[in-house]
Structures are given as C-alpha cells and as structure tokens.
Specification:
There is one protein chain. By secondary structure, this protein is α/β, with parallel strands linked by helices. The protein has a single domain, classed as 3-Layer(aba) Sandwich (Molybdenum Cofactor Biosythetic Enzyme, Chain A). Helices cover 43% and strands 20% of the residues. The protein is built from six helices and six strands. It has a six-stranded mixed beta sheet, with helices on both faces. The longest helix has 22 residues. The chain starts with a strand and ends in a 10-residue tail after the last helix. 38% of the residues are buried. The mean pLDDT is 97.
Length: 164
C-alpha cells in the first residue's frame, strides 16, 4: 500500500531562514525509502493558529494519509504543536505517542519532556515528532510498523483485516 505523507516543520528560526530544516528532509528520505510518497511539505513558525490552519487544510484536502509534524513539542513557551494538534483532531491515538516516548526513554531521559500527541482528523493520521533530526527519525521508525495498517483502517481498505 502506498501512503501519502505531509511533513510540517515547525520552527521560528527555520521559517525565518536562520537555520536549515534538517528534520523535514530526513523524514522525507525515510518515507521514500519505504516506497511511500511526500505529497506536501512546509515550514511554519511556532504559531498555533497557523499550525491549526495548515493541519486542517491538509487533512481535509484528501491529498495526504499521514501528517508528520516535527518540532514544537517541548517545554519552551513557543512550543505549541501539541495544542494546535489537539484543537484539530477528532479522535486521539495515544498509543503512538506513548510508544514513541517509551522507546525514546531507552535512549535519553529527556524523552519524558516530550508533549507530542497523535490523533485522527477525518481519514488522516497526525503524529507529532521531535524537532531534532535524530529524535524525529527515531520516533518515526518506532511507529513505521503500524502505519500501513493504520491507514488501511482509516480508509476502510478491505485488506485491513488481512494484516492482523
């Protein structure tokens, strides 16, 4: 099954061009290695209303199955990605965020500072990832094994029952 992704990098500095976005391209490379596609990619500043707007736009467009956000999940005052995500999702998918944190805790105690969330809007899965390329990649690799089945379920794919 081919999965269509949107990758949204959330960083004031990257949005201003002061720092290169390393996480978005790294995630895209991993997605392409799975023979999946990146249908949308953007960089936004840490602005809750702008994040909400693009998450709604991309989810409701029907052009992506999964939206990966990278950045804005920590304790800094401008880290508002989880709040923006919660505002637009219709159903939580807590197992994804819990598993990413649990796996990350094996590598660094800083993982307990992650406020990342995951959830569903319509037929689109939204997953918050850390902003660092290493953290984003490790967290995506943690959930990769279930993404095909998740998208099959979200899209009412008749083959979804075969992968149990």
């Amino acid at each position: 099954m081919s999965i269509r992704f949107g990758i949204l990098t959330l960083s004031d500095r990257s949005a201003r061009g002061e720092r290169a976005d390393l996480s978005g391209p790294a995630l895209a490379e991993l997605i392409h290695a799975q023979s999946w596609s990146v249908a949308k990619q953007a960089i936004l500043p840490d602005d809750e209303s702008a994040i909400r707007a693009i998450l709604i736009e991309w989810s409701d467009s029907g052009e992506v199955d999964v939206i990966l956000t990278t950045g804005g999940t920590g304790f800094a005052p401008r880290d508002v990605t989880p709040e923006a995500t919660r505002a637009v999702i219709q159903r939580d998918a807590p197992g994804l965020a819990e598993t990413m944190r649990a796996e990350s805790m094996k590598k660094t105690p800083h993982a307990m500072l992650s406020r990342a969330v995951a959830g569903i809007r319509g037929r689109t899965l939204i997953v918050n990832l850390p902003g660092s390329p290493k953290g984003a990649m490790e967290n995506l690799q943690t959930v990769l094994p279930v993404l095909t089945h998740a998208v099959q379920l979200l899209t009412d794919d008749p083959d979804s029952e075969k992968s149990h």
